[in-house]
Task: structure prediction
Amino acid sequence: MLPLASVYHLGLARDEETLQASCYLNKLPEAIAPQTRVLICEPMLATGGSIMYAMTELTLRGADPALVRIISVVAAPTALQKLSGAYPSLQLYSACIDEGLNDRGYIVPGLGDAGDRAFGTD
Result:
């Protein structure tokens, strides 16, 4: 659908104890040209740790948050508050905003472990 688009991958995993994101794969370019539009596909925004990590990596490389669009299936208020506080010009589209997070940092009611089911991981 976007034949001229460049595709980059950023692999993040959340520590289930601390709920902090850690990076296991970073294939972002060293620099992002001015005026580059960035589209992030992030199915679930729970604590906001992973998307904040991604936004930090992008802005360090020169991405303008006003030109970033995040597409999400479900989001929790916690992640939305973190993003809006740090990047007020950022635009985000989500099919649903759920009630909140449980004590494990999972979205409630959420989708369950959709990422694990989709990729066969634990």
Q: What stands out?
A: The chain has one domain: 11-119.
